[in-house]
Amino acid sequence: MSDNLYAPPRADLGAHAPPVLGTGDFDLARCFSEAWAHTWENFPLWLGAGIVLSLAMIASVVTLLGIFLLVPILSWGGFLFALRMHDGGAGIGNLFAGFSRYGQVLGPMLGIFFLNLALGVPANFVMQVGANQQPPNLGLVGAGYALSIAVALFVTSRLTFAPLLMVDRGMRLGPALSEAWARTAELKGKVALLVVANLLVAIAGLIAFFIGLIPATVIGFLMWVSAYRQIFGGAPQPAA
Q1: Backbone CA torsion sign across 62, 51, 78, 149
Q2: Exposed site from 15, 21, 163, 218, fewest CB < 10 Å?
Q3: Which letter, b or e, does each residue of 149-182 get, where b requires 16 or more Cβ atoms within 10 Å of its Cβ?
């Protein structure tokens, strides 16, 4: 309460803090430390959510049409759950939040799915041409693998932030892809290192019995979320 009895009343804005502004860059060590902390803080929650999501995905795939009509919506929910794990307030219900905005979510998530398929076509074509020759052309096969790695490191990796933008900010597919590509233009090397770091975490999960591959996968995913928050900042509107 103000000491000035004649001062106009003021609302307490502490409960509505503005979103954190992104720096346009990210620190790889911070990505790992945040992902590690959030993984173990939410261990029972993500384990249960992972089981529920896996069962829902399997049921969707079995129906065949569900691959295109249900899996994209569940994937949207998985991104939302990961964001909430990082920010706080994650819940199993996040996994199914996309169904409440089905028409808005389905098209963009399908677009991401088909874009990722398309990005792999050139490398797969080169590998198949080389493999189908008699004898196999190892040079072409190697070139195909090299192209696949290059696309994963320097193209697909940068577009990984697009679905996070779509989930977090409600952006459409085109603007989200443009924003992800533009904001990582000066971060190509660091984003590629993030891909390598994810691979190293996965390998550690395989060889270090006390970690395990499943927690390592969660850590790797949350490293992307941490990088996203550092680059792009907080969402201007609640995700769901």
Answers
A1: negative
A2: 15
A3: eebbbeebbbbbbbbbbbbbbbbebeebbebbee
Q: Which residue has the tokens 């620190």?
A: 27
CA distance 180 to 160: 8
Contact 157, 150 (CB under 8 A): no
Residues 6+ apart with CB under 8 A from 190: 25, 26, 28
User: What would the two tokens of residue 109 be?
Assistant: 């998530």
Structure tokens at 149: 């790695």
* Domain residue spans of the chain: 51-231
* Per-residue pLDDT tens over the stretch 134-157: 999 999 999 999 999 999 999 999
HEC profile for 168-223? HHCCCHHHHHHHHHHHCCCCHHHHHHHHHHHHHHHHHHHHCCCCCHHHHHHHHHHH
> Helix, strand, or coil here: 233?
strand
Count the neighbouring beta carbons within 10 Å of the beta carbon of residue 143.
Answer: 16
Burial environment of residue 114 by CB neighbours within 10 A (0 to 12, 13 to 18, 19 or more): exposed
Q: Where are the beta strands (DSSP E) in 39-198?
A: none
For 42-85, how does the pLDDT look when each residue is reduced to its tens digit (9 = 90+)? 999 999 999 999 999 999 999 889 999 999 999 999 999 999 99
Phi/psi of residue 233, each to 5°? 80, -165
Length of the chain (residues): 240
140 near 126, Cβ under 8 Å? yes
